[in-house]
Specification:
Elements lengths: L1 E2 L5 E3 L1 H10 L10 E2 L17 H6 L5 H10 L5 H4 L3 H8 L3 H16 L3 H16 L15 H6 L19
Parallel strand pairs: 2-3
Antiparallel strand pairs: 1-2
Length: 170
């Protein structure tokens, strides 16, 4: 058993098992803190994450070169790396005004080389939905992007509120 910074005991699974075996009638309340950390096993192969750390430790890189390597190696499943984000957001459109807005925004994202970011955002939203993780409604200038609204990053329909995309992609 260890204690946290407030002096509260934190029990491991083994500690709880030992307590139960030695005192089977002991009542545990919901205030018992349990250490749920998992020891890292270096023998496990993390097949879905490229080993960039090893590769990068062998190189002498400038900051722009390092940044480019990281931008080119997003940690997401291949299905999202190959996902046609433009087709996806266009399929979400319900009328001509939405199609026009999405087309304008997609050109702006493409000009800035941000399609991989959009693919990653789609992966992130799907991952959060799958794991029942709640995220915010939206904040800042990102809510002016109708594409981000269609992906699910925020819940503010920028067309409804007549928000200008130029506020986000300056």
């Amino acid at each position: 058993m260890i204690t946290n910074t407030y002096g509260q005991p934190i029990y491991s699974e083994q500690d709880l098992f030992d307590l139960y075996m030695t005192h089977p009638n002991l009542n545990f309340n919901s205030n018992v803190l349990v250490d749920k950390t998992i020891a890292f096993d270096p023998s496990l192969e993390l097949s879905n994450i490229p080993n960039l750390v090893e590769e990068l430790s062998q190189l002498t890189l400038s900051v722009p070169e390092f940044d480019k390597i990281l931008r080119d190696n997003w940690f997401m499943p291949d299905e999202y790396k190959n996902f046609d984000i433009a087709k996806f957001v266009l399929e979400q459109c319900r009328h001509e005004a939405e199609i026009q807005r999405v087309g304008k925004e997609l050109l702006m994202y493409q000009k800035r080389g941000l399609f991989t970011l959009l693919q990653y955002m789609k992966y992130l939203v799907d991952l959060m939905r799958h794991n029942n993780i709640v995220w915010g409604v939206g904040r800042g200038s990102s809510v002016s992007s109708f594409v981000l609204f269609l992906i699910g990053i925020h819940r503010i329909n920028s067309l409804h509120y007549d928000l200008d995309i130029e506020e986000f992609l300056k």
